[in-house]
Write a structure and sequence with these properties.
There is one protein chain. By secondary structure, this protein is α/β, with parallel strands linked by helices. It has a single domain, classed as Glutaredoxin (3-Layer(aba) Sandwich). The mean pLDDT is 93.
């Protein structure tokens, strides 16, 4: 179950996903130097609109795709808050594929395989998780936050 998984915040502290029990989650692998980076603006707008209804965005920077998430965790945090006003939680940089992949992303990919192959192909792949911890949808990077709002709001 997703709530049995722990991740690292951007200061290196362990965070149990159990603290998000009962919330609707959008879990995203991100990068600060990607063509999809402007999606941070839409993500922040979704967060501001729905956070009071039990919605959280969990942002996991990933440098596996063309080294588009350079910098350390604090530099990434500073970029996101300074450039896009991000106020949702940004976690420590992770790997989403391969031998060093995060247990969280291994779990997410296992639950929503509805894509050719299992691996994540690029930055800004998004997973929507309902209040019971079920992974209900996987969105390709080209799906903007605005385009997934209807499905998100139906879970709130």
């Amino acid at each position: 179950m997703i709530y049995d998984i722990s991740v690292k915040d951007n200061r290196g502290a362990s965070v149990s996903l159990d603290e998000y029990k009962g919330k609707v989650l959008l879990i995203v692998n991100t990068a600060t130097g990607c063509g999809f980076t402007p999606q941070y603006k839409g993500l922040q707008e979704l967060y501001e609109k729905y956070r009071d209804r039990g919605f959280e965005i969990l942002d996991f920077p990933c440098n596996q795709f063309a080294n588009q998430a350079p910098g350390n965790d604090s530099e990434i945090q500073e970029f996101c808050t300074g450039r896009f006003g991000v106020s949702f939680r940004i976690f420590s940089k992770i790997e989403v594929n391969g031998p060093g992949e995060s247990p969280l992303f291994a779990y997410l990919k296992d639950k929503k395989r509805g894509f050719p192959g299992k691996d994540i192909k690029w930055n800004f792949t998004k997973f929507l998780v309902d209040r019971d911890g079920r992974v209900v949808k996987r969105f390709a990077p080209v799906v903007t936050p605005e385009k997934l709002e209807r499905q998100l709001s139906s879970l709130l």
